[in-house]
Amino acid sequence: xxxxxxxxxxxxxxxxxxxxxxxxxxxxxxxxxxxxxxxxxxxxxxxxxxxxxxxxxxxxxxxxxxxxxxxxxxxxxxxxxxxxxxxxxxxxxxxxxxxxxxxxxxxxxxxxxxxxxxxxxxxxxxxxxxxxxxxxxxxxxxxxxxxxxxxxxxxxxxxxxxxxxxxxxxxxxxxxxxxxxxxxxxxxxxxxxxxxxxxxxxxxxxxxxxxxxxxxxxxxxxxxxxxxxxxxxxxxxxxxxxxxxxxxxxxxxxxxxxxxxxxxxxxxxxxxxxxxxxxxxxxxxxxxxxxxxxxxxxxxxxxxxxxxxxxxxxxxxxxxxxxxxxxxxxxxxxxxxxxxxxxxxxxxxxxxxxxxxxxxxxxxxxxxxxxxxxxxxxxxxxxxxxxxxxxxxxxxxxxxxxxxxxxxxxxxxxxxxxxxxxxxxxxxxxxxxxxxxxxxxxxxxxxxxxx
Length: 451
Description:
mainly alpha, single chain, disordered N terminus, 17 helices, disordered C terminus, A middle domain of Talin 1
């Protein structure tokens, strides 16, 4: 009996069962866009049913991505996982951009606020939280990615140096993001550059070699033993099913949380920037926590960095496309001075986070700094919103954002200067990987292996 209970398909069945209440609710109320908190459906019920489905779908998504590593480059499998996990964030922002194109200036600001909030949550909570969780977990179980060092909060999570490609592409996108507000909106130039950058990244990783698969256990190991056709079918169905569940459930989940928040007097704009993106990022954080719990910390961090890259390129770049289609002509998604400050602090946080990873590791101390800066900024802004009225709220909020932007930039510059040698290695590895992808030379890892 116990053997049957440990069978991998039992875990798959449990994950599927978690999604059934949501599927039933989704079908009963007529499909996408119709399931949301109302007189007929209590906010708490929507949160419970949609949240449970997201949990089950996140596990299915993680298993599909791990199974796919047998047939495609690991970076590509993780990139697909990242795109599917954050697809709901694209849907929410696309909705606001569409409304902006129809003439709503407030919707344009909400699109930028939601986008910047999601990006800052991914680093401020995602990167820092997973690093701290990895270090904490390694105290009880062995994790080759965690290295013990003497000193206060000196333990570090070490990253695979093959992640250099993602870090450099993210650095380029971050540098470009500082100039986006100077154009008066997110326009066609931003779209061409950022979407083009992500397509170039996909080209490089798709042309990469399939690495020797890590030793998997549980569900992925079971499916990887399938014949090729069955295994590929399982992966595709897993991606499609989990992606559909996540895409349809996250928005109602976020709406339910917003309704609960309103009951406690939390301002709507504040919730759209922070609570809704936190809900939409939940599948990604669940997947990464699952990977870390399996001592696959490197793969977890790769997924987080890949998510940040696609959000910082595709998410921003597609906003202008949706806006232009809705408006009926090519144009730039406008935003006010508050959102200018939001974009700059988001770019500055990204710059500082990249600086931390230049030496392919993140310490407990660095993770706490990332988390502390994020939390104190959000709490300080929440205090301003609660304690003051317009126009003082906007002026104080902008001043606060610029102050934190300066802190992030100064800390980032300091780390870049201290880690000059790491920057050189990072650029050399990325250049070599890119040339290898178009057939000009052997990859660093291949050359080392050959030696």
